[in-house]
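ugh ok fine here u go
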Amino acid sequence: MRIFLDSIGCRLNQSEIEKIGNQMIMAGHLLVDNPQDADLVIVNTCAVTTEAASDSRQKIRQAGRNPKAEIVVTGCWATMEPDAAGKLPGVKHVVLNDDKDGIAKHFLQKTPAEEFELEPLIRKPLPGIHSRTRAFIKTQDGCNNHCTFCITRLVRGTSRSVPVSEVLADIQHALNGGVQEVVLTGVQLGSWGKEYDPPQHLGDLIKTILEENSIPRLRLSSIEPWDLDERFFALWQNPRLCRHFHLPLQSGATATLKRMARMITPEDYRFLLCMIRRMIPDAAITTDILVGFPGETEEDFAESLSFVKEMHFAAGHVFSFSPRPGTAADRMDGQIHPKVRKERSLQMRQALEQSSLEFRQQFIGKEMQVLWETSDGLNQDGWQLHGLTDNYLRVTATSPDLRWNKIDRVILTELTDNGLAGQVIH
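structure:
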C-alpha cells in the first residue's frame, strides 16, 4: 500500500505522525511524498487557531482530489468537529485523539498488534515532510490547565505522561536512525510525571535520558513557565542540553493574565528569566504572545508591549485572539475588533523583531557549534549550508563538503535577515 502522511500544527503532532509513518514502514508499506500517488492518506489536524483549522481542512481537500485514496483524518480539529471532518470529500474515517495511537494497528490488520511494541523502529525522515536532523519524541499528552482561550485541553484531555521506558526506547530508535538531536514534546511538558506515585518531575526524566544514551543534543519544546526552579535549570551544566527555552507568556499585562487564567504574573515571569540568564549564559528565551484578548484595554496592551520589550526575547510568535467554540474566552464580554487586533499584532511583532536582532548581534565574532539541517546545493564556492546552534540561532555558511546532519564549529561573522552567517572551522 502507498501511504501519504501530513500534519498541521505543533511538534507533538509532528512526533505522532512520524511514529505512525514508521509503523507503516515496519508493516512493509511504502510512504510517498504526494497525496495524488497514495492509496491511503492520513492527515493529523490542528485546532489551536481558526487559521490552523482552516489549514487542516485545506490539506484534507487537497488529498480529496485523488479519487482513489482512502482518507483518514485525526488530530485536534477532527476531534473538535468530527461531523464536519467526516463530510469532507474522500474522508472515510475520522479518528479521535484518544484513538490516534491505534491508527496503524487498525488500518494494517495483517500486522499483529504486539509487533508494533517489539520491533525496533528506526526514526526515518518521512516523504512529503522536510527531512529532519532531529526527532520529536512524545513524552506527554493532555493538559490540566484551564486557560480560558485554549481549545487544546478540550480535545486532548487531561495530562498523561509517557512512561520512561517508552521515551527511552523511542529515543534509541531515533539514534538508530542517525539523528543528532532529540526534542521532547508534549501539550503540558512540565507536568510530566506529576500523576505518578510518588510524583516525579520532568527533570527526573531528563537526567535519566542523559544517563541512558549518547544523543548529542537534547532540546525541550514549549514548556509552561511555572513549576521550574533552580534545581531544574542546574541540569543545563550538561553541554548536551540545548540552551533554548520556549516559555509562553501570552500577555505582559497583569489583568489580562488573570482573565486568561494563566498561573503566573509578570513579576514571576521576570524572576524566572533572570534566573535562567544567570545560570545559563547565552540561553535563548523565546515566547508566545496573544494580542486582542477579550477585555484587553489600550492600557493593558501598552503594559504588555512594554513588558515584552523589557524581557529582550530571542524571538517569539504573535497570535491575534482567535475565538474557539467551547472555551470561556469565546463567551467573554469585551471582544476586540479585528482591526484593533491586527494593529496590536503588528506592534508586538515589531518589538519581537527588534529584540531578536539585538540577541543575534551579541554573537557576531563568537564560535558556536552548528548542526547542519539543509543545503541549497553546490556552487563555485562550495555547499551552501543552513543549520542551528543549540541556542536556536539560524546559521548559514559555505563548506567544500556536504555536512548535512553533522555538527561543526563555526565562527559567526555577520547578520542575515533572520539569522547569522558564519565560517566553518575545518
